[in-house]
Amino acid sequence: MSTLALFGGSPIRTKPFPTWPQSSEMIREHLLHTLENEQWGIGSKTISEFDRKFASYHDAKYCISVNSGTTALWVALKAADVKAGDEVIIPAYTFIATATAVLMANAVPVFADIDINTGNMDPNDIEHRITSKTKVILPVHIAGSPIDLNAINNLAKKHNIVVIEDAAQAHGATYGDKKIGALGQAGIFSFQSSKNMSAGEGGAIITNDESFADACFSYHNCGRIRNGEWYNHHRLGSNFRMSAFNAAILIPQLDSLAAQMELRDKNRNILDIFLDKIDGLRPMAMSAGATRSANHLYICKYDESKFDGISREIFFKAMQAEGIYTYQGYKPLYKEPLFITNENEYPWLKDLDYKSLNLVNTEKLSNKESVWLTHNHLLGDEEDIQDIMDAFEKVTTEMQSDPKSFLEFTLK
Ligand SMILES: Cc1ncc(COP(=O)(O)O)c(C=O)c1O
After folding, report:
1. How close are the terminal C-alpha atoms of the chain, in Å?
2. Is the distance from the beta carbon of residue 197 to the nearest atom of ligand 1 less than 6 Å?
């Protein structure tokens, strides 16, 4: 085996991986058509076409497009009747927006632990957190990998609670024989730059419930009601509307998504099979009932004990030196400074002790085990995927055959 790049050898990879997001002739045509023939904002046919197509793609009746995944979450929480002081159960292993949308609705995020094998919120860690104030369970399909929605929906039904799926990372993913997103009361998506469908920014809420869709319409459009008067405001909503240009960029992506998903599936599978054979690395499992991940991120787990205690951070350094950018990803959300220092700004959180929360699996995955690769790596060709595997093999083989030089490196 050649010398590791970390110790002065040649890196395995010197070329860039496919970039993201990707433009296309179809996207250019749709943008130009909207620019020259349609309204650019509210009332645009391009926006209603996107809403119709996105809902239908995700097996839902209604879609309300908005300007971000974060505002989609806030709008959906408000439409679910979340009021000041209500509690919303969320995982602590997710992007901060899942929690901030709850805070922005003047509600209380209640963190549940994850299943260490899937990264998704653990349905068995939810019930004992339910109180008379719990209004919503907000599961996240982490990395695009569907959570066990039957388990969550059964729990919600038993306690008369609403389920809103945070599907920000899960465009096109399936649970059983259905697309995720509208398998509870509603679901939200993000179209921010990194997402598998991207308009730079953007979001959407989907649902099968007409009155819920009407409430979302109102909250995202200054409190107006459908077909109501322009200067007639019924709710404390705001302008969270999507621009027609974002919708134009997204419509053709509903067609290109299928081929991209197949490529990501294929490459994820190759990596899973390969990593399964490396002692000390494990691919993530899918939750019960999940049939297809959107593979927004490729996550695997690092086991320090198989590498003589060499930290994951040193492993990252060695992989990055080989030209493969692996990294930690999320930290437990309750550790974020906002939960600890802003008592004056958020007085309703004052008596909550987020500081001493310790969700064992969330901490373990985040602080010790998680190894992330972004989804654009999965859009690579055979040679690209081979480079990733070669780097994993080169680094882990060296770590196991000569741990001393890594431990010395740690001390530098
Ligand atoms: C799980 C999750 N929820 C919510 C969001 C918020 O979406 P946005 O960045 O579009 O506001 C994101 C992504 O950024 C996300 O990954």
Report:
1. 24
2. no
CA of 190 to the centre of ligand 1 (A): 6
- Between the CA of 168 and the centroid of ligand 1 the distance, in Å, is 5
Q: Which residues constitute the domain of residue 194?
A: 25-254
Calculate mean pLDDT across residues 217-224: 98
In sequence order, the 6+-apart residues with CB closer than 8 A to the CB of 220 are: 64, 66, 71, 75, 205, 237, 238, 239, 240, 241
**Ligand 1 closest atom vs CA 201:** 10
Quote the number of domains for the chain.
Answer: 2
Task: Specify whether 246 is located in the same domain as 277.
Answer: no
- CA dist., res. 379 & res. 260, Å (int): 7
pLDDT at 1 over 70: no
Neighbours of 39 (CB within 10 A): 12
How many angstroms separate the Cα of 256 from the Cα of each of 48, 53, 253, 292? 20, 14, 5, 17
Answer yes or no: do 119 and 207 share one domain: yes
209 within domain boundaries: yes
Domain check: are 275 and 249 in the same one? Answer: no
pLDDT, residue 411, reads 62
Nearest to 277 by CA among 393, 381, 368: 393
If asked whether residues 342 and 219 sit together in one domain, one would say no
Tens of pLDDT along 221-274? 999 999 999 999 999 999 999 999 999 999 999 999 999 999 999 999 999 999
165 lines ligand 1 (CB under 6 A): no
Q: How far is the CA of 179 from the centre of ligand 1 (A)?
A: 19
Nearest atom of ligand 1 to the alpha carbon of 140? 1
Query: What Å distances lie between residue 248 and 7, 41, 218, 322, CA to CA?
Result: 48, 11, 23, 39
Per residue, what are the HEC states of 268-325? HHHHHHHHHCCCCEEECCCCCCEEECCCCEEEEEECHHHHCCCCHHHHHHHHHHCCCC
Beta strand 297-302 with 281-283 is antiparallel
Question: Looking at the predicted structure, is the pLDDT value of residue 313 above 80?
Answer: yes
